[in-house]
Specification:
The chain has about 180 residues and is of the alpha+beta class. Helices cover about 25% and strands about 25% of the residues. It binds nickel (II) ion.
């Protein structure tokens, strides 16, 4: 099943999410459907709140960057109950977009590397360092499960300039190629 994607303005994108246990109902099906939804929308990452589920789960698919970065080749992963516990001092800018904010693309400053503990889809624990594209998309998705979207990380001036566009999103005035809901 392909889920409609929740658009900016919806409350669920603003709530910190809850951890889950292996008993979470039909988790494998949910993960499979999230990958279907992500592929359909041609995105590189999708967090559970973006399909209306208030849980600490996100997926990434870095394969579009596979030619630039060998670490991204065939890189499709599931992250459950993640915890970023260290970030690099060095930061960088990268032009980000978000399936929940169609039409918006802005340079966002973030740490270039992170360390994160997380569970995979089999609830096996990992403790891993990420850099490059993977660090970027993981931090973006991690923000979603904390109730944060990428425009929150822009300067107040830049955000102010986008106010009209953000308002239009929350009013449903936007176009995109995938199914959405408010
Ligand atoms: Ni996003």
């Amino acid at each position: 099943m392909i889920y409609p994607i929740v658009i900016f303005g919806s409350e669920i994108l603003r709530k910190p999410c809850e951890e889950i246990t292996p008993e979470y109902p039909e988790l494998n099906k949910l993960i499979e459907d999230m990958f279907l939804t992500l592929t359909e929308a041609e995105g590189v990452g999708l967090a559970a709140p973006q399909i209306g589920k208030n849980i600490r789960l996100f997926i990434v698919d870095c394969t579009p960057w596979g030619e630039d970065d060998p670490e991204c080749r065939d890189y499709k992963r599931v992250f459950i109950n993640p915890k970023i516990y260290a970030v690099s001092e060095e930061t960088g800018l990268f032009n980000e977009g978000c399936l929940s904010l169609p039409g918006l693309h802005e340079d966002v400053r973030r740490p270039i590397a992170i360390r994160m503990r997380y569970l995979d889809e089999n609830f096996v624990e990992h403790d891993e360092e990420f850099s490059g594209y993977r660090a970027r998309v993981i931090q973006h998705e991690y923000d979603h499960i904390e109730g944060v979207v990428f425009t929150d990380r822009l300067s107040p001036l830049r955000r102010n300039l986008l106010k009209g566009k953000l308002l239009n999103l929350s009013k449903g005035k936007f176009q995109c190629t995938y199914k959405t809901k408010r």
